Amino acid sequence: QVQLVESGGGLVQPGGSLRLSCAASGIIFSIYAMGWYRQAPGKQRELVASITNGGSTNYGDSVKGRFTISRDNAKKTVYLQMNNLKPDDTAVYYCNADQTWPKVNYWGQGTQVTVSS
Length: 117
What we know:
Blueprint: E1 3-7, E2 10-12, E3 18-25, E4 33-39, E5 46-51, E6 57-59, E7 67-72, E8 77-82, E9 91-99, E10 104-107, E11 111-115
């Protein structure tokens, strides 16, 4: 059974930092591209950051320079370090695991991040 379990969300003041973690089980973690997506109320889910199985990273324009994605294949965990958080970063953050072929895609249950004073 595949599980992606996010943790690390919470309430933080503007300018603060949070580190999200996503622990995977039931998959060969090292061959999957991993990503973080977010969805704010009334908005579509959007890509925050992704990292390939080779370690190449990609970021959404709104988080470039503030967020960093990383992975630890030994721990089967992907991280999202979020710095200089803004109220617009408030959303539910979802972890995603993606295999290109055969095409397989998994989602975590999400973790709430709220940026407010």
